[in-house]
Model the fold of this input.
Amino acid sequence: MADVVVVFDFDRTLIDDDSDNWVVTQMGLTHLFNQLRSTLPWNSLMDRMMKELHSQGKTVEDIANCLRQCPLDSHVAAAIKSAHSLGCDLKIVSDANQFYIETIMEHHGLLGCFSEIYTNPTYVDEQGRLRILPYHDSTLSHYGCNLCPSNLCKGFVLDHVCTSFGCGKRRFIYLGDGRGDFCPTLKLQDCDFVMPRKNYPLWDRICSNPMLIKAKVHEWSSAEELKKILLHLIGAISIKEDVDSTVSSQPNSSECRSQTMPVYS
Done:
C-alpha cells in the first residue's frame, strides 16, 4: 500500500480542537488575544502570544504540558495506526505549527507514523522563548494563491509532495475541514479521494463548487466515521490494485478464448 498517500490536516481533523486556541485558552491569554486579533496576521499573533508567555515566566515545557492535555479521539489514533500498519504513506499538512503538532502526536505515540509534516516551523531562541515562523518566506516571490493565507499554501505543498514521487503512480486521500484545505483539494485527480468534515468550511466550498472537484468526495462528521471511511477507502484501493494486477498478468482476451474453447469431435 505504499502507493497510497494519506494527507491529514491537523486542527479539527486529527484533533477535535484548534491547537492555537487551545493554548490561548488554557494558558490564560484570551483577553490579550482578543485585543490584538485584528492588528496582526495569525502567525505573528501566535508568535506574540509566545512572547507574552515568556514574559510571564512560562517555559517551553509549560507549553508542552498544556499541549499534552489536548484530547485526541481514540478512533483517530486507531485510524492512524491502522493506515500506517497497512503500509500507507501518512503526512500532515497544517497551518498549526511544528512544536504543537510534534508535541501532541508524540504524547499519543503517533509521531512515528508520519513520514513528513508540513507546517509553520518553530524554534527556541537564546532567551528560551518559543518562536513561530511562517512556512513560506515572506521575502520570496508570492505564490499567487488567493485561496490560502500568505504564510502557507497547502496546494503548493501538495504539488511538491506529488512531484517528489517522480513518475510513480500514487493515490491520494486528503482529509481536512478548513478553507485552506480547498486549494489542495483542487489538485486531486479523479483517482483520488477527499474526506471533508461535514458542515465545516471545506465541505461548504465543495458543496458550492462541485464541478471543480475531480476527486471522489466522502464526508465525515465524527472521529468514528473518519476511521470507518478512511479504512474502507484504503481497503477498496487495495482490492482494486489486486484486481488490476491480476488482470494485467493474465493472457490477453483472445488467448483466453482459444485456451478455454471446448473441442467437439
Remarks:
- Strands lie at 4-8, 89-97, 114-120, 122-124, 130-132, 171-176, 193-196, 216-217.
- Confidence is low (pLDDT under 50) at residues 253-265.
- The domain at 4-17+72-122+133-247 is CATH 3.40.50.1000 (Rossmann fold).
- The two ends are 50 Å apart (CA to CA).
